[in-house]
Amino acid sequence: MQTSYLEQEPARSEVDALAGATVVEFGALWCGYCRGAQPAIAEAFAAHPGVRHLKIEDGPGRRLGRSFRVKLWPTLVFLRDGQEVARLVRPTAASEIRQALAQVIGGSG
Fold it and tell me: What is the pLDDT of residue 109?
């Protein structure tokens, strides 16, 4: 699990080309909702160390977040081979994150 936000966002084409299970988390360091969600995110990811986690700093002028139509933080986008299979906006419980992880892992073998 990635613990700090990447200031340099990857290109959408790079994210779309990622093989396997990936979770892209959009948020900001100063966001209270983002900070509040971190314990649940960490708990859910603890059982899935092999899932790629990209924690992307979002905000005005950030193209990757706009390409995923992110409006609220944190938003977790669950991808399998670059295709969105689930999305959570402002998750508060590890159980809902685990359910979405199961969806993204389920088809990747």
Answer: 42
